[in-house]
Write a structure and sequence with these properties.
Blueprint: H1 4-20, E1 24-25, E2 31-33, H2 34-41, E3 51-54, E4 58-62, H3 67-77, E5 82-91, E6 103-112, H4 117-131, E7 138-143, H5 144-152, H6 158-166, H7 171-181, H8 189-200, H9 203-209, H10 219-233, H11 240-250, E8 253-255, H12 256-266, H13 274-289, E9 298-300, E10 314-319, E11 327-331, H14 333-339, E12 347-352, H15 354-363
Parallel strand pairs: 1-5, 7-9
Antiparallel strand pairs: 2-4, 3-4, 5-6, 6-12, 7-10, 8-9, 10-11, 11-12
Helix pairs in contact: 1-15, 4-13, 6-7, 12-13
Length: 364
């Protein structure tokens, strides 16, 4: 086991490197209001975070990451542009037997800059590459923005598009929905039975026949949900060519330059992705200007879809066999608007786990 002092020293080294790159060091509270995180991520975050009750502040969470509190502080009184760095513990529940730590140090770098988002993407990635040089890590990149643009451009109902976007970070659930919406998988028997009952009478009648009212949803909410289920059942399947293109996109794995060529090739058939593909092209130019070989840089269109649910564009990781990601990050423009009450600034950042860096250094 790597001594804590060595891990802390590695974290301080990385923090000072971020400061030397122009970042302002910041700190955030370890206890964070649970309401904000639940609003952003939904109840799923409870399975991954430590939650406690405070008699004055209500539900609180041990800090699962730094990005949200850093964005909140920046949107309240930050400069434009701005760069921040931080070092501290984060807390995540882990699956039994995973061997992963539930408390560990994280050091990060965040960039808020509206002048050239693609240049900022390249800046963060190249800085991490340089700081992690010599550790034999495998860099992988992706772009969740392309997938989200493809979903928004589908010729289907807004409700179905919203469902797919909501589950973009749950690949298994996303594929199950896509299979059903595209007519490639049958509607579950339980849902069919429910639809038959809903069509047999009005939702209000069924609620009345059910007897004693149980649950926290109001009758109006139940009726709205029932009507939505019926409307969804009557929605035509996603057209086969569109569905095929989306499946193709989900499985795309190639060197970044080749991936761009492929995406350019399918854009005329899926025009909604054109702006996101243009941003991808500009990013590759910016990365090449930083000395990144985009002809060999790994690109996976589905990369980053199991991370916390605020990334909406460029994503990256630096990986080592048998370990969690040593470093990861990405773009989270929409999060700044949510936490800024409508104010918006493009933002990108990433984190490194000093404990894993120290461990790899000890193995070399």
């Amino acid at each position: 086991m790597t001594p804590k002092a060595a891990i802390r020293a590695e974290g301080e080294r990385l923090l000072q490197a971020f400061v030397a790159a122009g970042a302002v060091p910041v700190e955030t509270d370890i206890l964070q209001p649970a309401g904000t995180l639940l609003d952003l991520y939904g109840e799923d975050i409870r399975a991954r975070a430590y939650v406690t009750d405070d008699p004055l502040k209500g539900e609180m969470m041990l800090r699962p990451d730094f990005t949200v509190p850093v964005v909140q502080a920046h949107m309240a009184h930050g400069a434009d542009p701005a760069r921040y760095a931080y070092l501290g513990e984060v807390f995540r529940k882990q699956l039994r037997g995973s061997g992963r730590a539930s408390e560990y140090l994280q050091v990060g770098y965040e960039v808020f800059d509206r002048a050239s988002p693609e240049a900022a993407d390249a800046e963060v990635f190249a800085l991490f590459r340089d700081l992690l040089a010599g550790l034999n890590l495998r860099p992988v990149t992706g772009d969740i923005g392309i997938l989200m643009a493809a979903v928004r451009g589908l010729d289907t109902s807004d409700r179905r598009k919203a469902a797919l976007l909501r589950h973009a970070w749950r690949p298994t659930r996303f594929k199950a929905l896509l299979d059903r919406f595209a007519g490639r998988a049958p509607v579950p028997q339980g849902r069919l039975a429910l639809l038959d009952r809903l069509k047999a009478g009005s939702p209000a009648q069924l609620i009345e026949e059910a007897g004693v009212f149980v649950g926290i949803r109001s009758p109006d909410e139940i009726i709205a949900r029932a009507e939505a289920l019926v409307a969804d059942a009557e929605t035509p399947p996603i057209k086969a060519p569109e569905a095929a293109l989306l499946y193709d996109l989900l499985s795309l794995e190639a060197p970044a330059a080749h991936a761009l060529t492929h995406l350019r090739g399918i854009t005329p058939m899926l025009p909604a992705i054109a702006p996101a593909v243009d941003r991808f092209a500009r990013r590759l130019e910016a990365l090449a200007a930083k000395g990144v070989d985009v002809a060999t840089l790994a690109f996976e269109a589905s990369h980053g879809r199991t991370a916390l649910e605020y990334y909406d564009g460029f994503v990256f990781s630096f990986l080592a066999d048998g370990l969690p990601p040593v470093a990861s990050g990405g773009r989270y423009d929409a999060l700044t608007a949510v936490l800024g009450d409508g104010a918006f600034i493009p933002a990108v950042g990433g984190v490194i786990r000093p404990g894993l860096v120290a461990r790899l250094k000890g193995a070399t």
